Each structure stands twice: as C-alpha cells, then as structure tokens.
Amino acid sequence: MKCCLGLMLFLVGAALAYNKEYASKNLLKIRCYQCNQPYQCGHGVCYGDLCVKTSISQNNAYVSKGCENITHAVSHYEPQLKLKSYCRTEVVFGIESTICYCRDDDFCNDALTARPSVAVCLLVVLLLLKAL
Description:
Blueprint: H1 2-25, E1 30-33, E2 35-37, E3 45-48, E4 50-56, E5 63-68, H2 78-82, E6 85-92, E7 95-102, H3 118-131
Antiparallel strand pairs: 1-3, 2-5, 4-5, 4-7, 6-7
Helix pairs in contact: 1-3
C-alpha cells in the first residue's frame, strides 16, 4: 500500500514540476487541444496565445480545435483580448458555424466538462495518507 502511495506522490510531484517548467519556458502561451473530428475531440496539443474551437452550429457534428497566435494586426483580436472567452457565428458556403476563442486556462477549448484540478488531486492524496 505504501508503495502505491509513494508512486502517487511521485506522479503528483512530477506533474507539478512539469507545470513549473512549462510556465517558465512559455510565459504567455497556453496549451490547447488540437484536433479535427466529426465529434467532440480531446487529443493533440498545441501552444498559442488563444485556444480556438469551431463547430457546426446545427448539430455540433464537426469540431475543429487548435491555437492562434496574436499577430501585429491586434484589432482583429480585439474582442478576444478584452474577454477571457468569446464566441462568434459565421456562415461560410451556407453552413453556419460557431467559432469560440478562449485564453483563461490551459485546454480551455475543451468540451464543457469538469476537469479535476491539481489541488483536488493533492487533496485526495493527502486524505489517503491520513487514512494510513
């Protein structure tokens, strides 16, 4: 049992070290999902200033996720810079799609599902240690 707890502590420590290293090397970049699927996808990673998610408005059947970097044409990104997240609707070739931008957290172009935070993971580990 102590072997498993030691392994869990090692993995949590490695995750925290990775996050610290990531933050120091990529000060302004965030991690985003990058994928193109006929359904909600959550694999592939890119780094950018903004995360982007595009979906077909009618049925959310096709989803494209990725990153964008802010260029010198800042006026194009003005709404996205003022808000942590922003969506707009476009019609291209008669197909209405919704494009959402976010910059408030890593992988913010995820589907609207809850993700456990590092704090919650640490709390679980501490409760397990206390139970021993």
